[in-house]
Structure formats: C-alpha cells, structure tokens
Amino acid sequence: MRVLVVGSGGREHALIWAISASPLVDALFCTPGNAGIAEEATCIAITAGDIRGIVEFCRREQVDFVVVGPEAPLVLGIVDALEAECIPTFGPSAAAAALEGSKGFAKDLCDRAQIPTASYRRFRDSGAAKAFITAHGVPIVIKADGLAAGKGVTVATDLREAYRAVDQALVEARFGTAGGEIVIEDFLFGEEASFFALVDGKDALPLATAQDYKRVGEGDTGPNTGGMGALSPSPRLTPALEGAVMERIILPTIDAMRREGSVFKGVLYAGLMLTENGPRLLEFNTRFGDPECQVLMMRLMSDLLPALIAARDGVLQSVDLRWQSDHALCVVMAANGYPDEPRRGTEIRGLEIAAADRNVKIFHAGTRRDGDRLLADGGRVLDITALGKDFDLARERAYAAVDRVDWPKGFCRRDIGGR
Q: Contact 282/197 with Cβ under 8 angstroms?
C-alpha cells in the first residue's frame, strides 16, 4: 500500500514510526512532516490545511490510504474531500469532527444523550457571561467554543481571572473565531485521565490508557499547553473504570452521533475527570492525543495499519490489539517562551547520543533542517519517550536522554511521572 499521514507534529511522527513497521506498506508519505519524520517517510511540502493540494497529491501518487493526524483539517472537511475522490481515509467527517470543533455542540450532545459531564451554559455576550459567573461563583471553567490549539481553556479560581478569560475570548478576540462563543461550566474535582477508542461508526475498540500533563510548569502550574508530557498506562483508570467509560460515555456518544446523522469513524478521545461519583467527560477530541499518541505507539505490539483500515471500513469487530506490559513515559522539550512566544530557529545537538538507549525513542514535534543543522521550528519541539518495566525506570531513561540533548534554548518539566 501507498500510505499518506497528514500533519507535522510528534503525534504524526509516532504514527509514521508505527505504520512504517507494517508489512503492508510499500511507500509512506507525510504532508508536510518535519526533520524527524523525513528520516522515516517522504515529506511533501503541502500544509495540513491545504485540502485541495492533498487531494491532488493523493490522486497523482495513487495513494491507497490516508491517516489524518491533527484536528484542524478534520474540522475543515479533509476526510469528506478525500472520500469524495474514492481515497480511503482514517478520521471523522467534518460533521462528526464537530465533537471537537465545537465544545458547545459536544456539550449539547451530552445533554441530549445523558452522558455524564459538568453542568454548563453557552454565551456570546460578555456581560451576560460575567453576570452568570458572579451568580455562580468560583472555581469555574471558561472555554473557547472552537479550536484554540490547547490554549482556550481557563480554570478560574477567582472572579478577576474568570472575567479576564471572558474578555480575552469575547472582547479581545484572542482566539479569533474560535472564541466567538464560550462555554462556561462547573469545575469538577478529581483526577484527570485520557481514554482512547477506535470507532467504526457502530463499534468501538478501546486502546491502552494514558494520562497527560497540560500545564506548562512543574506541579501543574502556569497556563495550559498542548501537553508537556504523558504516560501509559494511566495508574488511575482501573478495568472497572474503563468499563464504565465505555458504557456511559463512549458507546452512548457513538449511538447518539449515528442517530443524529453524523456517523463517527476514527479515534474518539475522551478527556475525563475521575470524580467521587464516577467518570465525567471534560471534552472530546476526534484524533489521537499529543503527546499521548507517543506513549501509546511505544507500547503497541500489533500492526497499527490494519486496525485503522478496519475502523474506516466498519469492521472493527474483527480486530484485536496487543500491548506491551512495559510502561511508557514521554517528556516534551519545548522552545523557550512557549506557550506564548516560542523562540524558533535555535540549534539542537546531541540527539544521536540521547537516543542511544534502545528503550528510548525521540519523536520530533517541531523541527527543521538547515543543511546539517537541526533547528527548533515550533513551540513543542521534541518528545523524549522511553519504556520501562515500571514508571520509575521509564522516567529514569527518559530524563537521562533529556539530559544528553544539547539545546540550551529549550526546557521541559522535570516532574512528569513524578507522582
């Protein structure tokens, strides 16, 4: 098969690394890719949002199967465009991707389908939103309705912070059209976890569990980011909890989407809060998490590609996936200034030495080549991922590799997997 992966981040590097091991693959492409991906696939200079360019490339190169990594092209309808040209594609349609593209849509669906989540209200007017917050009190959560690259969520612990979040979205338009509407919801107490399932429209196959670290600073401080680290399996998602998530959240969502005419196929990623009253949905994503995908791919023993094809074809019941018992941990190295104004163009050295341990894999999230030099080209730049028989060993190996990377203009959290 000739396979294309769309995207340029660490998630896409992890997917390409896994797919490249499949005996089904004859040629592997990525649009647009990065410096690390270029070592394992042919990178094509077409941006993930250039849907027409991607369709034309697939027709010209006779691509047999497409895997879409990031959320933005899914919401824009890349799957619809490719399937219209009879190019089989893994991922949800634009209508189904609204589960991630609009938090209001997702919350309304949960309300109709009685899926457990936090109570909420939707607002377009800042005055009305602030009046609601004043009456409700804090802590409270304010979310931009649309895609905001992981930066549109504020967990406000005082009224001033809450009002500021409202103004940033509705008055200052900090998130553009994504913040033209906001969702304000109750703050849920508990522990967070990530739950992933492959979905074929009617059936779901749960993947290994994972947990990520959203805040930029150690001790879960500072602003939210796209993710500063991850581990798998989640120490908090017991088999009983996994069963409850499938029964109360994943399967009812699939059924509700099918009833409403937006059949969901792809990855359904439920961000959860494990409360004293059971798991509650925080939000849906409609693609693999980043950096959760990296730890999942490190633990996956099965061939990924047939599972993705089965999800697209509606035959997931015939698929079973096997996972290593080893634990995986990922530490994200980001450019100084992230998440606000990351410094691009700084040189990175020492990756060969850092990756010398066979239990370590360095996925590139934001890099480019300038001749022989490797340069940072994004906010999150490297994903140092390691395996171990337990989290202590995986953590030791990951941070040993981090310390061998010669990049004074980068930083990471030092507490991933620390508790």
A: no
Token pair, residue 76, equals: 């824009």
The burial class, CB within 10 Å (0-12 / 13-18 / 19+), for 192 is middle
148 falls in which pLDDT band (50, 70, 90)?
confident
pLDDT reading at 419 higher than 80 = no
Question: In terms of Cα–Cα distance, which of 385, 368, 378 is closest to 335?
Answer: 378
Going by their DSSP bridges, the two strands 347-348 and 373-376 should be labelled as antiparallel
Q: Please tell me the distance from the alpha carbon of residue 143 to that of residue 186, in angstroms, as a whole number.
A: 11
For residue 97, give every residue at least 6 positions away whose Cβ sits within 8 Å of its Cβ, in sequence order, or none: 71, 74, 75, 79, 91, 286
Q: Assign residue 174 a region: left if phi > 0, alpha if psi is -120 to 50, beta otherwise?
A: alpha
Cα–Cα dist 198/306, whole Å: 12
Identify the residue whose tokens are 């409360």: 275
Query: Taking the CA atoms of the chain, what radius of gyration do you get in angstroms?
Result: 20
- pTM of the predicted protein model: 0.95
pLDDT of residue 224: 82
Alpha-carbon distance 180 to 100, whole Å? 16
Residues 70 and 10 sit within 8 Å (Cβ to Cβ): no
Domains of the chain (ranges; CATH) run: 2-93 (3.40.50.20), 119-186 (3.30.1490.20), 191-318 (3.30.470.20), 327-411 (3.90.600.10)
